[in-house]
Amino acid sequence: xxxxxxxxxxxxxxxxxxxxxxxxxxxxxxxxxxxxxxxxxxxxxxxxxxxxxxxxxxxxxxxxxxxxxxxxxxxxxxxxxxxxxxxxxxxxxxxxxxxxxxxxxxxxxxxxxxxxxxxxxxxxxxxxxxxxxxxxxxxxxxxxxxxxxxxxxxxxxxxxxxxxxxxxxxxxxxxxxxxxxxxxxxxxxxxxxxxxxxxxxxxxxxxxxxxxxxxxxxxxxxxxxxxxxxxxxxxxxxxxxxxxxxxxxxxxxxxxxxxxxxxxxxxxxxxxxxxxxxxxxxxxxxxxxxxxxxxxxxxxxxxxxxxxxxxxxxxxxxxxxxxxxxxxxxxxxxxxxxxxxxxxxxxxxxxxxxxxxxxxxxxxxxxxxxxxxxxxxxxxxxxxxxxxxxxxxxxxxxxxxxxxxxxxxxxxxxxxxxxxxxxxxxxxxxxxxxxxxxxxxxxxxxxxxxxxxxxxxxxxxxxxxxxxxxxxxxx
Length: 475
Fold this sequence. Notes:
Elements: E1 7-12, H1 21-37, E2 40-42, H2 57-69, E3 74-81, H3 87-97, E4 103-107, H4 123-136, E5 142-143, H5 154-173, E6 177-181, H6 195-200, E7 204-208, H7 210-219, H8 225-237, H9 245-264, E8 269-272, H10 277-281, H11 287-295, E9 300-302, H12 306-319, E10 323-332, E11 335-343, E12 356-358, H13 361-367, E13 375-379, E14 383-393, E15 398-409, E16 418-423, H14 427-436, E17 442-446, H15 451-461, E18 465-468
Parallel strand pairs: 1-2, 1-3, 3-4, 4-5, 6-7, 6-8, 8-9, 13-16, 15-18
Antiparallel strand pairs: 10-11, 10-17, 11-16, 12-13, 14-15, 14-17, 15-16
Helix pairs in contact: 2-3, 3-4, 5-12, 5-15, 7-9, 8-9
């Protein structure tokens, strides 16, 4: 995931019978704030229009032309209202620019004692008018937490941080490329998806037969420099001291070929057939390679769970940190708000400090433990939790999702694999929603609190149907 400084288009609204000097002050405020918040503002200068604001249709045309010239790098637009502003000017700019990016509407607060003609802003009222016009024009927009807020206020810094994350999610999901490696396991109807629905939303899937990956891996010589380098990389990544050398070699060969597949196809994420062909025909698990890719922010989901990989990508766009695909796996004793999250071992090591490479006992019971080396074993510590899931609704031809927040706990968990104990308020109601709405048994977790960001991006800018568990009291 690219971490370049985001560019944000800025529209500073103005209205002629309100104090003009407020526009110049706002422009200085935004320039100063942009340096602190680490974004690049794209906005008119005082040489372009009066004080660099947007008031007339001519101003809107100039601002729209500026935005179009920087279309490829503008992630979102910030509307700034230092006074009442001209709602038509704002709406006209966005319509003419046609950027199709998120929009944040900010309005300055008035100060008691400065409500005279020279100082009053009336931006509280102007914001309502701007939003009304944007709604009329069919332009989606995001609001600040407080109706009016100063760019110097701590709450506005939080508003911008959330907004930039929304821009990452909305923009990133419109052009994501996912690799599907192999066929889904025959017993996993749950991970079926509609490639056509994804494509309609800008999400491309590149497929490859698993035999091509395994064939290329088999052709790599034991002492090939890239194979030996991958072995070194695995050993540096996790404790692999227990892995038989022959199995470590197979893991490395597979990792090299997967790296090539990702690079050659410019993929953002992968979903891989983790069993049982890999174990039977290559003699190892792919979990370690998947974990290493996810740690590098190239998320990888098992069981060819393409929409699971998409969810992983969405969550890392929101948070800037790795995601993990997990099973809603077990109850935790008799606590109705706690459960066990589990997988054989493909989580990014950010979730499992001190992780070690091991075999997979469950798969080994049928495939032979000697063929399952490459799984990871580690416990996730206590911390924040965002969970969620994106799916394709083939019947309705739509995208659906659910999101929510909770926490990972330090409760005792004597088992193997990648594992965690999660506490989710009203967990039983969430499980009823997951079951009634036909969501997959896989869910994605991220060590953040970003559910509101995901909901905003999914619903407002991508047009998806979203259930936000924190906001709903479903029985």
